[in-house]
Amino acid sequence: MPNPFAVLGVAETADDDAIKKAYLHQVREHPPERNPERFQVIRAAFEAVKTRPDRLRYRLFGQETPDLAGLVANALQPGGSRRRPTEFQLRQLLSSSLAGQK
User: Fold this and answer.
1) Among candidates 61, 50, 60, which has minimal Cα distance to 15?
2) pLDDT by residue (tens digit) across 32-67?
3) Does 99 have pLDDT greater than 80?
4) What range(s) does the J domain occupy (predicted)?
5) Domain spans of the chain?
6) What is the pLDDT of residue 66?
7) Do 30 and 42 form a contact (C-beta atoms < 8 A)?
8) b/e code 4-33 from CB counts within 10 Å (16+ = b)
9) Is the CB of residue 8 less than 8 Å from the CB of residue 47?
10) Residue-wise DSSP of 12-62
């Protein structure tokens, strides 16, 4: 997926209101009846960055979806609690924590 901020035509520092206004403008310019493919790209971009936690998650992970089950399984392996978590694992944990804030 292309950069959602570029798709919506907003700066990466835009707030929720600016992103929603840009999304609505793009939907008016490219309604799903006329261009369903473009509308899907616009909708996906909006979903990726519509709230502050979503924007943080996008900046940390991009399109990657963290696997909480894999993180827990790794932690429960013998010796798992004595190993330091990797940066990837910490990002997964942070992402799953942010998902609970919605």
Assistant:
1) 50
2) 999 999 999 999 999 999 999 999 888 887 765 556
3) no
4) 3-62
5) 1-50, 52-102
6) 57
7) yes
8) bbebbebeeebeeeebbebbeebeeebeee
9) no
10) TT--HHHHHHHHHHHHHHS-TTT-HHHHHHHHHHHHHHSSHHHHHHHHHHT
Distance of alpha carbon 91 from alpha carbon 87, whole angstroms = 6
Least confident segment among 14-28, 41-55, 65-79: 65-79
90 token code pair: 């910490």
Distance CA 68, CA 45 (A): 24
Query: How far apart are alpha carbons 52 and 59 in whole angstroms?
Result: 11
CA distance 97 to 68: 10
Indicate whether 80 pLDDT > 60.
no
CATH number at 1-50: 1.10.287
Pick from 93, 94, 10, 2: which is nearest to 44 by CA?
2
